[in-house]
Amino acid sequence: MKIVDNINNLLGDDLKTTLKNGTRLKVAASCFSIYAFEALKAELSKIDKLDFVFTAPTFVPEGATDQVKREQREFFIPKVERERNLYGTEFEIQLRNKLTQRAVARECADWIRKKATFRSNKTKAPMQQFICVDGKSEQVAYMPIGGFTAVDLGLQKGNAVSNIVNRFDGAPYTNTYLDLFDQIWRDPDKLEDVTETICQHIESIYQENSPERIYFLILYNLFNEFLEEINEDVLPNDRTGYLDSLVWNKLFNFQRDAATGIINKLETYNGCILADSVGLGKTFTALAVIKYYELRNRSVLVLCPKKLADNWMNYNSNLKTNLFAKDRLNYDVLCHTDLSRDSGMSFNIPLNRVNWGNYDLVVIDESHNFRNNDIYKDKETRYQKLMRQVIREGVKTKVLMLSATPVNNRFTDLRNQLALAYEGQSDALSQKLKTNTSIEEIFRKAQTAFNMWSKLPPEERTAPAILKALDFDFFELLDSVTIARSRKHIETFYDTKDIGKFPERRKPLSFHCPVTTRKDVMGMNEIYAQLTLVKLAVYAPLSYILPSRMTKYEELYDTELEGGKGRLRQADRERSLQALMTTNLLKRLESSVEAFRLTLGALKNNLTTTLDAIADFERSGRTPDISDYTANVDDFDSDDDDLSGLGDFTVGKKVKISLADMDVQSWQHDLKGDLALIDGLLASMELIRPEDDSKLQHLKAQIRDKIKNPLNAGNKKILIFTAFADTANYLYKNIAADILKTQSLHCAKVTGSDAPKTTFKKAYDFQSVLTLFSPRAKEKHLIMPDDKNEIDILIGTDCISEGQNLQDCDYLINYDIHWNPVRIIQRFGRIDRIGSPNAQIQLVNYWPDITLDEYINLKERVENRMMIADVTATGDDNVLTAKSSEIAYRKEQLKRMQEEVIELEDVKTGVSITDLGLNDFRMDLLNYVKENGDLKSLPNGLHAVVPADADLGLPAGVIFALKNIHDSVNINQQNRLHPYYLVYINNDGEVVVDQTQVKRLLDLIRSSCKGQSEPIQNICRLFNEQTSDGNDMRRQSELLSDAIRSMIEVKEEKDIDSLFSGGRTTALVNTIAGLDDFELIAFLVVQEEQEARSAFGATGKVESP
What we know:
By secondary structure, the protein is of the alpha/beta class.
């Protein structure tokens, strides 16, 4: 007997000397590895035969008795490990990382077919493990052994404490083992032949893989935890029948992915923000989610801005215009503003009796309206009422938020919206996330990173720069609770054949029209100069109170902030109102002569009424009370977005001021000064008749031209947007009759403040007007089949700038430029939608007749007046600094808007959260596993070959998917996928995309692989020629080393950064030693189709293409 200790003398070396020509090798072991074959290849090719017994059931089905179990999972778990050992155990990773697995597998399979038979123990009885060599001249037995792998042969390091094997020579010992082996070998009740299965498994390594298979193998490794966590509780339950609902069947593939993802997030985290880009149909996606919860007998509330209520109520009512009438959607609709009211009716619901606490799901449209959570001492804000009454009280409430702009420039915006989902108890959410940091801390760090980023010069302030600066935890949080995709993303990564494409956007037309060509009327600049002199003293009576009487009014009307954080002063509210009214005057002047005239008239009325009251006081000595105008916000134009914000200023009560307490002389002097300026402006404006209005006349010519020369054959439709109802009325009055008479086309007008108007003899409601304007998108043939009317020109305010699909139209005119670029994009999103019937669409913008610089400076001056007011009003001081750095940025945007149609993602001065989430990949994997079953038994180390494509950002090279096998490596939180790493290296060994850009890497893999269910033969052939059928993988192996080296460099760079920034440092904590720290999961070869053959060191002349 001899002891083989696998240190000084190795079992593998011993076998090499023992195996000779004509020997029969008999092995009983738990597993077999192709790398053991490779190590003994020369000797095994000489032997006569190998008989191999798997000592525990391997590659055999699990007994036919348990039929149900068997259908669910053909092989049971511990076996999967034994079966996967065929391709190399966890300690043979280094061998696999040499990338020669494929060549080894091919040789091994050929050899097995010639010389080996494999049988497996099919009983539950354990068997001893040993090796017998039955030679012509000598017989040898080895015992005990573990498996037949490179580690058990002592050729690779394993983790066993010892690996000592006894070698027995001579008849009495060896015969015992040989007889035992033969006895078992011949017993059909104990063993089952698995040779063919093994050959098939090994062949799976060297057959060409389809790119799609590799894509899903990578996803399976990255997200199998997600699959494990997914069960009936957190996935939509098919048994509810939601798949049969009308609304579900109306959704496009990307919307279904979103709906499934939302339900999963609502069930897991209780809340979700859907922030898909404009024009991707968020309303329908939300309706599908609502339908799912209604089928589960849940009660649903939709909270939306007043102007969008009609859109939501169209789908829950039994109306002809309701596409989903058969789905019997049954949710309640209330407005954001209803949260501030305790009595009265809202859409026939009595507000004093609403059972706020009884809703299981609340859908908040335009949820960014709930981004302020400022606390007042004696008043509950909308946000607090929503949190207290709807979400915390009563039943457990899930919250779905819809918003195209959830982050403005403060991350608190996003945090406050998310807080609705976790009921203000952030620990509840923190526990479910894979981070150790609290939600508050995550947002604080994100805000710090953002503040530093926003101070960078504009050219360095790029999206990748902010993504690099943000923390891993922030992405983890976003990924858990948001779904946000851009249209670019949908076009690139979804199969849009059945949906159709986005239309081509033509370069926008920009027009600068003067107010009028009349010489006796002031020009734009002169009017601006006059407006800056107007003090609007009528809106600020408190500023004129005598100092000795001031305390009385402060006590009456100022509001304490919770926790002594300061006061909200009524005087500041008035100043805000003054600033807002100045802005309003400017905006209305930009919009139309008419809107400006009406506002000047209203202002004049206010001034004369107040001056009359003062005159009466001086004459009679009576002391009437003067009201402050902040209370009369409702009298302003309801379509003006900016004034809707006044609701937040009017926290106070109606202010009454006794004239006896005021410095009446000063006030009267300022009021008279204002009145003189206003009178002058009004007199000038009154001279302009419609025929003198240059902008109106230009618009009419533009409409006639478009009707005469349609962009898309036969399409005469035009959508005209304005910010003000007054302008809409003016345009309708001056255009409708004329167009009907000269062009025989019908016209309509919709505003948020009064009933729609059309040129037809009969009256139509809001939804019907939109259906007649966009009959294809709104499916008029289903909902108004008998109505033959059609509208070609629609004039509307921003009440239709969101949540409407009007893509029959191909021509959109902004009669005034909204000061917020996001609004312009939302307007354009009505016609710039996926699946448009139009090949191209046109955006037309009317700009004020001044240079861009003057325009920006003007806005900046006015906004700064507002900002100063705002700072005092909210006690938040970082708004000003954020503003000043935005001016250059804003100018850049407006300049671009004159040249091209920009994306919402580009416009946001802050961070766009679109396209950061990994939800699409999880949904891909989920759908694949549902259809094709588990991927657990696929070996690691597989590869596929895809063509290089510069347009997709795929230069020739290799994308590696690796697993870090020492968990200690990723203490710095830079890689969201840890312990998995993706990295893309080109053929020159340079990093194309490093491991921190997870989303981008997965996008590239997805766009090159998804849908490719067969290997791409011509590319595979090229690659095989270059690598001698996988035998010469030196170049790829070098690239793998480069990839790992690059990861070490990125980590070191991040470590150094972390030394010099606040928070934990990751430097010196641990290091990546190199290749041995990683296991290769799979790799994707990106192959040039016409690459010179010698590039990879393969033999052969360079062929001319």
